[in-house]
Protein: 4-O-methyl-glucuronoyl methylesterase-like domain-containing protein
Amino acid sequence: MQRHPYLLPAAMLLAVMTFTAGPSIGQETPSAWQANADLVEKLTRQRREFNYVESKVPKYTLPNPLLTRAGDLIRSPKQWNDSRRGELLELFREHVYGRRPDTDYSLRFEQTSEETQAFDGAATGRGMKAIIQIGDRSFSFPFVVFLPNNASGATPAVIHINNRYFVPLTTALEKPDPFWPVKTFIDRGYATASFHTSDVDPDKKDGYADGIRSFFADGKPPEDTAWRSLSAWGWAASRVLDHLATIDSIDASRVAVSGHSRGGKTSLWAACEDQRFAIGYSNNSGCGGAALSRRAYGETVGRITSSFPHWFCKPFSDYAGRESDLPVDQHEVIALIAPRGVYVASADEDLWADPKGEYASIVAAAPVFRLLGKDSIETTTMPPLGQQRINGQTGYHIRAGGHGLGEVDWNFFLDFADTLLK
Structure:
């Protein structure tokens, strides 16, 4: 039977496997990561309506990122950039994240505070406000920027989409938090900026009236395919990048966007929509982020769209229980970021986010990186727990512990970022 080339069977991922030299005699090879059997059993008992058993993952095929909807195979970077990339963007806008408005607006920035000798003189910190103007109406959100004081030349930067809380300048200095470890960035030669998602668009089902989406729509209800909160938060990250691009000590061509969980979903989509971002970093992003929807492992499309309907456009919920009908899957989000950098991080105990599905997305996006002349992770087996894997434009690690973001994750990520941004 001839299989339609638009679909990429999961088994065919073996065709892109790469090999490395084996260990010396007497040297043990760390095992590829697998979900802990006791944890799988425990989670299955606790939440029987969701699947945590690998053998129960449904058989699935993935859309081929290099095949257009008309059935034409993309064979050159020009074809990708002129045709397929735009087509994929529109499919995700229509079926998953929603379409951003094309309303004209003006943008300006105000500095609200400054500390020129932060961290014993190592950095300058600034409190900022982004102000968006449409006619006589305005909307604003705060963000914070830290710049290394002792850098020689323009530095790279990381914009962190903080989905937990806003960290004002004084708090960042007085109560360091591993969720956004400013001193770590400074010590490693990076500028960094952060904003809180709910200051842009409230992270709740009934928060529409108070956010940027309602501002752009002048209070009118959103259409089914209009942007939702994830896309709005990513839009805000681009506005922070607009500001960083005005700072002489930052190289705006070397800026990464990062996020954890819902922030990680956002960072990937932000890097799709805005090609100025040099790297998209998602940490424990799971369903609607890096994890393949078709695996239906842990959190599913049905669960996430019913619990967080404000994150995704309405059509995404229509694929609950029929993920294989989606015209796209999350490996194509990673493909849309190519040939730029993508970093994905998982956690051993965070099976809700489907670590295997997150890693598989990177591998399934490799043909696009290859087409664009870049190396990417193609090894189908996952790395061992606590070990990082980097190949060209993509990187991955899975650490011990549960759903969260800390110094271990950041240092792994910055090791990867160093290979592309320094």
